[in-house]
Structure formats: C-alpha cells, structure tokens
Design goal:
149 residues, mainly alpha, 81% helix, 0% strand, elongated
C-alpha cells in the first residue's frame, strides 16, 4: 500500500510539475517582478497534495525499501533516494527562492529576472528527477508482479 501511495503521489507531483512548467511559469516570467505577484499560484495545492504527503511517503518508502529483499529492492531504493534528493532541493532551494521572489516589496528587476531564469532551468531538472523516481517506483511493481510466488 505504501508503494502504491508513493507512486500515486509521484505521478501527481510530476503532472503538477508539468502543468506548472507549461502554464504557471510562463505567466511568472512574462513581466517579473510584477507577474510573480499572483494571489494564488498553487501554494495550497503543493502543500497539501504533494509537499507534505510526498515527503512523508518518501521517508517511509525509503525505510521500507532498505528493509526489503529481492530484485525489486534496487529499484525501490532508487525511487526513494531520487525523490529524497528532489525533496531536499525543493525545501532547500525551490520553495525559499520562489517565496523570496514573490515577496513585497520586490527585489530589483534584474535580480528577479536572473534568479527566476535560474529557478526555471533548475526546475526542469527537478521535474526530471520526479519522472525518474516515478518510473523506478513503477518498475518495482512490475518486478513484484512478475516474481514467482
């Protein structure tokens, strides 16, 4: 059950990350810093749907994967460790940076543009990590399904 929840939340985070990259980020980058001051750019969604639950599920799945045996163990560890790296980056860089860029009064426009460009570029890496972790977690299910009982 923990693995399935992990997969569902990874898929949700990946889909939401794609949505954010294709819809929200272009709005943010249209005319910073003014364009960053949207009233709600998904904060409630990220906090309650992915940030909290996915982080908790990552830690729990890492613990369970470390205790597991068999051919799926390496894939499960990969999924959990890659997600842990993504979670650390999210809490250590992505959240604080976007909050800082969205604050009022805004930073100077050149500083905002440079920081936002870096954030956007690194966000592609973050979304890629989520995809890799999601595929690895799905591989665990495949291996378990094909394992002789």
């Amino acid at each position: 059950m923990l693995l399935w929840l992990f997969i569902i939340f990874l898929g949700t985070a990946f889909g939401a990350g794609l949505y954010e990259s294709r819809i929200v980020v272009p709005m943010w980058t249209s005319d910073p810093p003014a364009s960053l001051a949207s009233p709600d750019s998904g904060h409630r969604f990220w906090v309650f749907v992915t940030t909290g639950p996915l982080t908790l599920l990552t830690v729990v799945n890492l613990i369970v994967a470390l205790q597991s045996q068999g051919p799926a163990r390496a894939w499960w560890l990969t999924a959990a460790i890659v997600t842990l790296v993504e979670r650390v980056a999210t809490f250590g860089y992505f959240i604080p940076t976007i909050v800082r860029l969205q604050r009022t009064p805004p930073l100077p426009q050149t500083a905002v543009r440079a920081a936002l460009a870096r954030w956007v570029g690194l966000n592609y890496v973050r979304n890629s990590l989520t995809l890799v972790a999601w595929i690895a977690a799905l591989k665990v299910v495949e291996i378990q399904a094909l394992a002789p009982t």
